[in-house]
Amino acid sequence: MIAKREVWNYPHSAKVWAGKYRHSHNLLHWHYDCELLYVEKGSIDVFCEKQTHTLTVGEALYIDRGQVHYMHAREEDTTLIVLVFDYAILKDYLGDVRLAVPRLKGNYPIPGTYAKIREVLLSKEKFCGAEAAAHVLLLMSEIFRGEEVVPREGEDATTRKFIRLLGEVSEKYEYFTFSDAASYMGMSECYFSRYFHRATGITFSRHLNFVRTEHAVELMQSGSLSMTEIATRCGFGTIRNFNRVFREVTGYAPRDLPADFRLGERLPTLAGTAFNPTLYDCELLESVQG
Known about the structure:
Blueprint: E1 4-5, E2 16-22, E3 29-30, E4 34-41, E5 43-48, E6 51-56, E7 60-63, E8 69-73, E9 79-85, H1 88-94, E10 97-99, H2 110-123, H3 128-146, E11 149-151, H4 157-172, H5 178-185, H6 189-200, H7 204-222, H8 227-233, H9 239-250, E12 283-287
Parallel strand pairs: 1-3
Antiparallel strand pairs: 2-9, 2-12, 4-7, 4-9, 5-6, 5-8, 10-11
Helix pairs in contact: 1-3, 2-3, 5-6
C-alpha cells in the first residue's frame, strides 16, 4: 500500500470538480486539493488521518490538503458524491485551523450544493468557475462553523521522511528489507513496525509483498522472463516463496493468472509523480469534465 500524489485537472479553469461514483475503490494517495465525500447510497470505508471511518447513507467526510487516504465501498451499489476543490478557495478564511476529525458530525446541504455546482459548471457560462467556488465557500464555511476545529500544524519532519521512505521502497523493492526501512526512519524495528501500521493500516511486510507482486504481474504479462527469473528480479528469493506470496496477494498461482488480470482492490505502490488512483471496478456515474 503506497501513497501516490494525485493531480486534478479542473474543468473550464474552475478550480472545482464535482462527480458521482458507484462502487468507489482507490489506492492510497494524496493531493494538494481538498475533497468532500458524501454517501448517497450504501456504505464505504475511508482510511484518512491514520484511521478507518465507515460512512453510511447521509454521512460525509472532509479530506484536507496533503492527507493520505484511500477508500473501499462496502457494497457494489454504493454511490458516492465527491467534491474536489483548490485549497486556495478556503485559505484566506480558515487562517491556521483545520477540522479536528475528517468525519463530519453535523448535517450539511452537500447534495444540494453538489447539484448547484454541477449545473453551474455544465453551463460553461462566463464566470461559472467563480460561481462554483462561491458555492464551495458557502458550504465549507457552514461546515467549519459546525464542526470542532484545531490549530493547523505543519507537516512534521517524520511524516516527510516517511513519504520519502515509501518512494525508496517503490524504487528498491527487489532488495529493500524491513531492517532497511527501520534504519532509514531512524527507529527501532519494534517502534517502526507500530508506526508503519498506524500510518498505513497494514504491516510493512504486507506492503512490500504488494509492491513486489505488482511488479511481478507486470513482468509476467510482458512474457519475456521465466517464473524463476521474475521471482529473483522482484525480490522473492525462492520460487516457493514467490508462489506462496503471489497466491496470497492475487488469489491465483502464478501460472494460472488470467492474461488480463489487475490487482483490483488490492493496494499497490508509491511514486512522486501524478497518477489516477481510481481502480478499474469503480464507475464514474457523472461528472463535470469536458
